[in-house]
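Every protein is a chain of amino acids, and every chain bends into a shape of its own. Below is the pair of lines this work produces for a single protein:
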Amino acid sequence: FKVTGRWALPALSRAFPASRGVPVLDPVNNRLLVEMCYIYPATSFLQQDVPREGARGLYRFDLDRLPKPAPGTAPELRPDAVLKSGRTIGGAKVSPDGRWLYSYDHSPRKGGPGIGGAVTRVPTDLGAAGDELPIRGAPGWPGLWLSDDGRTVRALQVNRERDGATGVMEVDAETWKARPLRDAQDLVLTDQPRWPVAVAPDGRAFVADGGGITETVFGPGGESSYRRRPVLLARTSFLKVSDDGRYLFAADAETDRNRLY
């Protein structure tokens, strides 16, 4: 495990790049997908959302085509494709077959009353704008999870029937249609700051609230069951389910002695 090279992000004349999202690896096609927002020197951070042609978008880098750097240099990368966009995305995931990049969109094209975001998909070659499904509720829930077979995309959404309560929104990855919302126990959007959430590949939802972790298990007929484990976590903490769905990891942050469970 060692550094094999360094490369610089592409420059746009007087602008400099500020990445807005975590770079996503597409292992099937050996691509790196990066969302970047270019900020101009005369533009303050309060003004960076002012629309500018070519200033924000998704950038594709084909790793097989990377230039070989000379020792001590960092050649500038040239993107193999750019999808210009006014979006700010989060929770990006690549489908198992390498066809789609899924993400949570904080600034959907089809907004409206009560719409706080959208689940989006674009081709990983960035050859088309893709599709989006609006999500009702407050923005700022960038979590996105895939089923182990890649057929279901999951995000969080406010339940219209229970004010403030939140459920798991399931999207059929083939038809790109949303299924009926499923309530997740103890998950409320009005918590500020919000407690961590994780969703397993089989759809189980885990929510921490400081005094413990609540697991919601969804039955085939829409029924739900709940389990509670007394795990003490700080307000700033993280949950993560292993890719095989066998383990749940919980960790504190910003405390004198952070703990990992």
Summary: The two ends are 27 Å apart (CA to CA). Confidence is low (pLDDT under 50) at residues 43-54, 189-193. The longest strand covers residues 31-39.
